[in-house]
Amino acid sequence: MAPPTTLAQKVWDRHVVHAGAGEPDLLYIDLHLIHEVTSPQAFDGLRLAGRDVRRPELSIATMDHNVPTEDGPITDPLAKAQLDALERNCGEFGIPLHATGSGREGIVHVIGPELGLTQPGMTIVCGDSHTSTHGAFGTLALVVDGARHELLEGDSVTFDADLPHHFENEGQEATRFLAVIAAGLRRS
Asked: Considering only CA atoms, which of 120, 115, 112 is closest in space to residue 8?
């Protein structure tokens, strides 16, 4: 009988494309969220390598960090250049873009759950440090290496999945939560 595995390990194992001794696992990514600040380098790298985006339908871009909070045109030249570059890059590589004024734009790490794109069991990447904060819906306790952490709606947590851990819901209501597994981690 195989030893029990954690939910995180099950998601990880389902997404391994290649595992090699002494190498990081190569994971299949279900969704790539893109914004204007960290994406220009990636698009330039694709151009230099003469490559296309293999599955553009698995990527979604939004104008985020450089969108003004006040009505009116963008007056910062660097912000405008980055937003214009995102629009050109998405057009060139066939990536859907939720541009300003589309009604579907927003903060890159919020639009995934808001648009129903983020689903349990998915691997999601983004060049934004908050992407792993899609969080829990309801009330949930996470016990990591014996320490209990109460998570309320909208909370998020990161932890070393190699440590013993489990989730608890002692309330009367059903709890839904979303696990986002960060790519680039090494399995031992």
From this structure: 120
